Amino acid sequence: MNPQITNIAVILGLMQVAKRIPFDDPNVLNMVRAGYILSNIIIVAIYYYVGIVIKRKNDLTTLKYTESPPPMSQDPPKLITTTIRGHDEAQLRAAYKSVLTGVGMMVVMHVYFKYTNPLLIQSIIPLKGVFENKLVQIHLLNKPAIGDLKRPWKAAAGPFAGFGGGEAKTDKKSVEGAEKRGAGGAKEE
After folding, report:
1. Does pLDDT of 185 surpass 60?
2. Sheet holding 62-67, edge to edge
3. Could you give the angle at which helices 117-132 and 3-19 cross, rounded to 10 degrees?
4. Distance from C-alpha of 129 to C-alpha of 185, rounded to nearest angstrom
5. Sign of the CA dihedral 26, 29, 35, 40?
6. Cα 148 vs. chain centroid, distance in angstroms?
7. Cβ(154)–Cβ(138) under 8 Å?
8. How confident is the model at residue 43 (pLDDT cuts 50, 70, 90)?
9. How far is the CA of 15 from the CAs of 2, 4, 27, 100, 125, in angstroms?
10. What is the pLDDT of residue 182?
């Protein structure tokens, strides 16, 4: 099932549950805070373990692809040459950044604006998202890197995805064309 649809269903369900939770009671509020903190500790621990697995596998298979230019740019696609380990480590850094951004936004919403309901929702949704993460599926759940899990991964479709340049291309024609143009070619490690 589509992760966005399940996220909406979970959010709507948790909003109904949150209406019945007495957040006025300091003990209940502290328990929800503890659940949020525990959820984020579990997420970081999972990503840390995935990082250990990536380093242990040390897959140095070369991965060449062209990266689409930014929207409204006239630049040609940029050639990226990296290894599977380098690609996975870059994706892991992006996952850590996403977790820290979510925690930062939640701190502002809870501490500054005094919203309590999102604590409950943000204890569940990011934890669900971890197991939908392609790195976790490959390195923790041992799914083969085929189909949607084949590297390089498509960027998540956002609200402005139609304005972007598209996805990373790994076909021989695109890679050779970028090599001939001299577009990029910087090796990422």
Report:
1. no
2. 62-67, 78-83, 184-187
3. 160
4. 33
5. negative
6. 14
7. no
8. very high
9. 20, 16, 20, 23, 12
10. 65
The model's confidence at residue 157, banded by pLDDT at 50, 70 and 90, is: low
3-state SS of the chain is CCHHHHHHHHHHHHHHHHHCCCCCCHHHHHHHHHHHHHHHHHHHHHHHHHHHHHHHHCCCCEEEEEECCCCCCCCCCEEEEEEHHHHHHHHHHHHHHHHHHHHHHHHHHHHHCCCCHHHHHHHHHHHHHHHHCHHHHHHCCCCCCCHHHCCCCCCCCCCCHHHCCCCCECCHHHHHHHHHHCCEEEECC
Tokens of 8: 């909406």
- Residue position matching structure tokens 């040390």: 58
Neighbours of 102 (CB within 10 A): 16
Please say whether the beta carbons of 58 and 158 come within 8 A.
no
Cα gap 85→74, rounded to integer Å: 31
Tokens of 185: 């070619």
Cα–Cα distance, 122 to 11 (Å, whole number): 9
The whole-angstrom separation of Cα 118 and Cα 113 is 11
Residues composing the chain: 189
Please, what sign has the CA dihedral across residues 116, 93, 160, 130?
negative
**What pLDDT was estimated at residue 26?**
95
Query: Across-strand partners of 67?
Result: 78
Residue 41 has what pLDDT?
98
